[in-house]
Write the structure tokens for this entry.
Amino acid sequence: MPEPTTVRLVVFDLAGTTIDYGCQAPVGAFVAAFAGRGVAVTPEEARGPMGLHLKDHIRAMLQTRAVDQKWQAAVGRPWTEDDVEGLIRVAVPLQVEAARRFGLLVPGAQKCLAKLRRRGVKVATTTGYFREAAEACYAALRSQQFEPDFTICADEVPTGRPAPWMVLRAMEALDAYPPAAVVKVGNTIADIKEGCNAGVWSVGVTDTGNEMGLTHAEFSRLNGSERIQARGAVKARLFAAGAHAVVHSVADVPDLLDRIDRKLAAPNARRQPFSGR
């Protein structure tokens, strides 16, 4: 197989990456679902496992010491798998409704897509959302003229993130290979690990994502030094998770592809790490 000289496919995450600035929709649904059992989880506790499939996310929250202690204090016993299923039943309609409300594209997403189209790069999306919530996101994308070549959600693979199956399925569907010709872009630790496990370039975004956790208005109010500090903290977490590069938002992805293409085209340098730091 010849070595690639250009990126052929970019796989984007949804909430916090292409839509829903600050990844707000899932957070509120998790907080409300736990509140229904009398357990007051914080937005930060709800954000911790973001990017995982719904059941995995709820289980991961309950497995943390803080949420486990809150659960036992409120419910009077340790949590069980039946409790996980009960929380899922409550969270599902909440997440669907929230996915509809927070379906606005992040700034620069449409221009990013147009630039990728002009350079002949295919576009796919993956998401930790279950099918019904994912469909709400897909409808929002279509209504804003952001139409990927392929979409897939966590319900459609054997295991969701950080397993690589959604990315690999997108590669298969769009005939994009080898992995060095593919870039995964996301905003959570699970996104980064998904890309790494698929063997592709794994790229994180700071400003619009779960790790930053701010709405567009809140982020816009940060002054210069506050932005530098906040971005630095998020970048450090994403790089620690294995990111090859970190950008501010999807608006920066086309310029990053130029850098990756130059690396791919450089003799004897194609497999060297690309940190983008």
Notes: The CA atoms of residues 141 and 147 lie 6 Å apart. The chain has twelve helices and six strands. The mean pLDDT is 94. The first strand starts at residue 9 and ends at 13.
